[in-house]
DNA sequence: GCTTGACTTCGAGTGCGCTCCAGGGGGTAC
DNA sequence: GTACCCCCTGGAGCGCACTCGAAGTCAAGC
């Protein structure tokens, strides 16, 4: 349960499978805030550094936030909506209803997207089958005889 | 079965659900060639126009090519690959094997994409469920009593 | 002290797929 | 003839999500 002071940006990037550029970009773009080092550390040199130039530390909470962020990105939610969602998360528990609404609407979009992809996939597979039938005559596989006319079509 | 001289670019765009800009862009980008008017027409003015400035006519063959092109685009195939595929189509029947290969590889990509989307969708749905359980206490629906602690999490 | 390496900032650059614009053609309607 | 509408071209612009570069900071190792 202890935050254990978290990972550096490089480690976090590695673990999440994105670039450090992307992580910084997300923060710059207002998607989330990441705490910085100077708070408490084992050996305390005189001063925590310059306050800018302070290194980010990614704890469990940031990581799980980012994991979900990547889920949203991975389903094509635009940055602007993600920004809104993350702001709601930061704003506390009484934004749950609105967050839910946002996710439900996105869920519908994703479902539709999957359906459309499935349709298109079907069309691609049909074309492949057509090529299989046509290709039995010339190049690759040797199967039993079907008529080998090139009756139009691509 | 007769080509009936085909549609204008505006009509084709309307029918395919894209903009005329996009159709011209596809052609400019080498995805396909579209025949032009000046061949044979009812009233022949002295000269068929300037040869540039000649209007495109979209016949069944162009339309079905475009429909499949849109399937490929709709599944995220990049323009460069589509260009290759379309070149193979133009090149004639003995490119069928290579076309097939291209489509099969894309098919795999789309299948993977759908799977990934499904995974992400699951994560989103779980989050929604979590919000449902949390939200029973405060804002929207009134259901029977579950414990209403906010035990961590976004 | 100097180098190395991972971090910091801000701003500019990239790639993709359109999308739009200026400037012009040409045919039909009034 | 001139208004209208759809068509043409080449090139510029846009939105998105990164991606990279220059210049600087800091801690650790030799």
Order of H and E elements of chain A: HHHHH
In CATH, what is the class of the domain at 9-40 and 48-99 in chain A? Mainly Alpha
Largest sheet of chain A: none
Per the principal axes of the C-alpha atoms, what is the gross shape of chain A? elongated
Distance between the termini of chain A: 61 Å
Find the count of extended strands of chain A (DSSP E, 2+ residues).
0
Structural commentary:
The structure is a homodimer of 154-residue chains. Chain A has 154 residues and is mostly helical. Chain A has a domain at 9-40 and 48-99: Orthogonal Bundle (Multidrug-efflux Transporter Regulator, Chain: A, Domain 2). Chain A is 55% helix and 0% strand. The first copy, chain A, has 5 helices and no strands. Chain A has helices at residues 9-16, 20-28, 60-74, 79-91, 96-135. In chain A, helix 1 packs across helix 2. The longest helix of chain A is centred in the C-terminal third of the chain and has 40 residues, at 96-135. Chain A is elongated. Chain A starts with 8 loop residues before the first helix and ends in a 19-residue tail after the last helix. Residues 39-48 and 139-146 of chain A have low confidence and may be disordered. Chain A binds chain B through residues 64-65, 68, 71-72, 74-75, 89, 93-94, 96-97, 99-100, 103-104, 106-107, 110-111, 113-114, 116-118, 120-121, 123-125, 127-128, 131-132, 134-135, 138-140, 150, 153-154, and chain B through 64-65, 68, 71-72, 74-75, 89, 93-94, 96-97, 99-100, 103-104, 106-107, 110-111, 113-114, 116-118, 120-121, 123-125, 127-128, 131-132, 134-135, 138-140, 150, 153-154.
